[in-house]
Amino acid sequence: MWVWIVVGVVAVVVLAAVLVFNRLVRLRNRVDNGWAQIDVQLRRRYDLIPNLVETVRGYAAHERELFEEVTRARTAAIDASSVPDQAQAEDQITRGLRQLLAVVEAYPDLKANEGFLALQEELTGTESKIAYARQFYNDQVMRLNTLIQSFPSVLVARAFGFTEREFFDIEDPARGPAQVDFTG
Amino acid sequence: MYEQIASNKRRTAVLVLGAVVFLALIGYVIGAMTSSGVVGLVLALVVAIVMSLGSYFYGDRLVLASTRAREVSAGEQPRLNNIVEGLAIAAGIPKPRVYIVPERALNAYATGRDPEHSSIAVTQGLLEAVNRVELEGVIGHELAHVQDRDILVGTVVATLVGAAVLLSEFFMRAWFWGGIGGRRGGDRGGGVVSLVLLAVGIVMLILAPIVGQIIKLAVSRNREYLADAQGAMLTRYPPGLISALRKIEAGAKIPMHSANNATAHLWLNQPSRIQGEGMGPLERLFQTHPPIAERIRRLEEM
User: Fold this and answer.
1) pLDDT tens digits, residue range A66-104?
2) ipTM associated with this complex
3) Which residues of A touch B (CB under 8 A)?
4) Measuring CA to CA, which residue among A38, A49, A176, A32 is closest to residue A100?
């Protein structure tokens, strides 16, 4: 009789541990996938920057300082090795690009240029994809970290070496009303 | 959300089972009346199974074709494709295929069987009327339907109802023309057949309103509110969808030529074939959408 009760309790505990373990794995994979998505979009933005700089340079050659700043931020972001470093470099890129697009306002010819308009749509699209990918990544990181920190899942997480992940934070109000695009 | 997915799968199974049983019954009755035995039943079962499988695997294509939707590439419609891709990333699902419906009315819908096989269609009119933020709101709403598998129920309902409408028209016409032909020839055998056809046709006619009620039950108004809320959570910006809904409300008088009762529930807002504010009596019977004013009010409370 007692043997069966012990066996039953052990079976329930093992089953619960397996379920928690599987959830941890699923969340970890989602976090990795979320990071890969961010990476894809960031890379797309790196590819767009030289094109954009070249196009704007053709009309506003004297804004050299701005071009250099954006290019420097791009290099820093590509070379970044840690999550916070990269977040900071990306932040700089975002700010530089916004300035660049603000400068463009003064050049009606450039604003009417079809190649520039296509680039601008690509850039706006990529910016919002970066924001969405970050949103997804941070959501999943939060869920993973919560699970790793809560009891009793913390026991399983410790036993199998699941570690908390870092948020991809950019202190920057990229989303919200400021982004409204009335030309759309 | 996971309960939503499970409940939608259950609904779909019940719907398909109901359709199979219903068709089998009709087949059995026809078989009994024409004294051809179980042939009618077997035939009806085969039809029902083919129909169910067809609506599961090819329903999205039928729906897209019935609205004359055309797939557009990223090169052709960069803004629309960028928004769909971005929000799909936010939702953590693969990017759905993107279609444009050549209509002046302002509307959109999503179809497919799961996030891996899904499509989003917007009308030309909507695309021209809204700005980027508003379009994001609309796409967010549609992606919520994709995420929750509302599209599975909606698409299966659309194809099953479409088939039922076709069948009832077929039977009524067959009876009408068969009846005249039978009288002219004075053929007694034709009389029995035409009687059967008449009976089936009448049953179908009685059933149409019931089917309307079933659609209402299957695709309850609540999931429109839910998709609004969930879509707003994807974009993190409810005013986008609110402003889009206002424009859609203002443009609701524009008639939609490809609107029909089989697909009405799929659209973001109930489409109407009739110019002006009103709806036809049959369209009102199939009314599946909550009023836009109420949807806006709930979004503003978020």
Assistant:
1) 888 888 889 888 888 877 788 888 888 888 888 888 888
2) 0.74
3) 30, 33-34, 37, 41, 118, 121-122, 124-126, 128-129, 131-133, 135-136, 140, 175-177, 179-182, 184
4) A49
